[in-house]
Each structure stands twice: as structure tokens, then as C-alpha cells.
Design goal:
With about 270 residues, the chain is an alpha/beta fold. Helices cover about 30% and strands about 25% of the residues. The chain has a single domain (about 1-260), classed as Carbon-nitrogen hydrolase (Nitrilase/N-carbamoyl-D-aminoacid amidohydrolase, 4-Layer Sandwich). Strand 10 and strand 11 form a beta hairpin. One of its GO terms (molecular function) is hydrolase activity, acting on carbon-nitrogen (but not peptide) bonds, in linear amides. This is Hydrolase.
């Protein structure tokens, strides 16, 4: 059985100091049985600090790849701003590194003039030795469809480079468990402790939270067993053993009503006079 670790921390005075502190802390905390390590959105620099300098970006990838190789783990690098390919603006970019230190998946989202990160329509799912995993940025994770799309593609664990809001931390904490429950999936969410993010990193499965960081600097970890998720997804039509199969099961013949905007019986709004 492998372990998942999520990194929650405050950024230091500059991006390089943050990188040094984070890599050092992960080196101390992440053990040899690690399967996954997840860093947050805006992992090393504030969202308004502009693109991460290329030399520092390369160093971050090199240091995190070394961690992946040393621990035999998949590392979600967290995200940071980079200039887009056209040189006309910024993208928020996250990468999943495999135990050989190679890039296995990339999530890239455009950043608008106000500094807000857009949502996307590509949601990678990667086969690993520890089950199938989906990679998400927070903007997509908090929507209904992206986690569901990844789970229908076979994801058993969602790795999320995210952030939270101080105004809604409690609701987002509940939502992490809700997403795990409604999709019958594991969720490993890393969030930072610098505004606008307010912590709340955690690891959840349908049964509840396996680990939660609250609002303190920490690298919580938990055992990960993909077979447990597979068990909960098994057909159990009499609901004698699990409840979650009823939440996982789908009726595709009803999708047309959703996409076509048709109203179901009893959903009429208002009354004609």
C-alpha cells in the first residue's frame, strides 16, 4: 500500500526561498513508500508576481524530479504562471512527474488581464502503479463536470493543485468530501496559506477524510488503497454492503434530458394566470 502527501505552506520572501523551504520539508516528510506528492496552486510565487523566471522554473522541475526519483513517487508540481506559447499572455501550468522524473501530464489554463485563471475542457487521466489518477487545477475541481469526466474515464484518485477562500473554507472542506462521495473517488487537494488561499488541504475518500491540514503549515499524509475505491464501485443493487454504488452508477439514457434542457415532471416553475 502506498501513501499520499499534500503540501500546505506559506510562501517565503521570494520564490527561490520558497522552493528551498518546500523541497527541504518534503525531503524530510515524504517517506520511501510514497505514491503521490501534491503541491498547491501558485506553488512558489504570488499570483500577481508575473511569470516564474525560466531558470527558476527549470530548477523547480529539476528539484521535484529528483524528489520523484528518490522516493519513487508521482509528484504534482503545483502550478505557476508561465508565458504562453504565443508570448501574448500568461498560462497557469501544472505538471505530473512520474517516478523516473519524466513529465506524464500537463494542465495549462490561460490567465486573463485581471489575473483570474480560466477553466478548461481537457482533463488528463494517467495510469500509474497505484491506480488511475486525474490531474486538476482548482478552477476545474470546484465544478461538477471535470471530476465526473475524469472518473468516467476511470480515475480512482484526483490530484488537485488548488486554493481555497477564507470566506468559504468550511464549505469547501465539506465540498471536498462531497466530491469524493458523489464520484466514489479519492481526492488529494493541496492548497496554500497565502491570500487569497486559506489552507484546508486534505485527503478524502467516500468514507471521510483520511488527513486534513486545517490552517497550519504541514505535509499531511495518508495510506492510499485503490482497491477500496474499486470495491465501493462494484454493483451492489440491493445496497447490502455499500451505499456508494448508487451514487457512482449512471443512467446514460437520461443524459439527453440534461443536455437538451428539458424539464422533468414536477419541475415546472411558476403558474400561468
Amino acid at each position: 500500500m502506498s501513501q499520499i502527501f499534500v503540501a500546505q505552506y506559506r510562501r517565503r520572501a521570494d520564490a527561490r526561498s520558497t522552493l528551498e523551504a518546500v523541497v527541504g520539508r518534503l525531503g524530510e516528510r515524504v517517506g520511501p513508500h510514497a505514491g503521490f506528492v501534491v503541491l498547491p496552486e501558485n506553488a512558489f510565487a504570488a499570483p500577481d508576481a508575473g511569470p516564474l523566471p525560466a531558470a527558476l522554473r527549470d530548477e523547480a522541475l529539476t528539484r521535484l524530479a529528483e524528489l520523484a526519483r528518490r522516493r519513487g513517487a508521482y509528484v504534482l508540481t503545483g502550478s505557476w504562471a508561465e508565458e504562453n506559447a504565443a508570448g501574448t499572455g500568461l498560462d497557469q501550468v501544472a505538471r505530473l512527474l512520474d517516478p523516473a522524473g519524466e513529465i506524464r501530464a500537463v494542465v495549462r489554463r490561460s490567465v486573463d488581464d485581471r489575473g483570474a485563471t480560466a477553466t478548461g475542457d481537457d482533463f488528463p487521466v494517467v495510469d500509474t502503479e497505484h491506480g488511475r489518477v486525474g490531474v486538476l487545477l482548482g478552477q476545474d475541481f470546484w465544478l461538477v463536470e471535470p471530476p465526473r469526466i475524469q472518473c468516467l474515464a476511470g480515475a480512482e484518485l484526483l490530484l488537485v493543485a488548488g486554493s481555497t477562500s477564507a470566506a468559504t473554507t468550511d464549505s469547501q472542506h465539506a465540498a471536498v468530501w462531497g466530491i469524493a462521495t458523489l464520484n466514489t473517488v479519492g481526492v488529494a487537494l493541496a492548497a496554500g496559506l497565502d491570500a487569497p488561499s486559506a489552507g484546508g488541504s486534505g485527503i478524502a475518500v467516500p468514507d471521510g477524510f483520511l488527513a486534513w491540514a486545517g490552517t497550519r503549515e504541514s505535509v499531511p499524509g495518508a495510506a492510499w488503497d485503490p482497491d477500496h475505491i474499486r470495491h465501493l464501485r462494484q454493483p451492489d443493487l440491493r445496497f447490502q454492503e455499500t451505499l456508494w454504488f448508487g451514487l457512482w452508477a449512471r443512467r446514460p439514457e437520461l443524459y439527453g434530458s440534461l443536455t437538451g434542457g428539458q424539464r422533468s415532471a414536477g419541475a415546472t416553475i411558476g403558474t400561468e394566470g
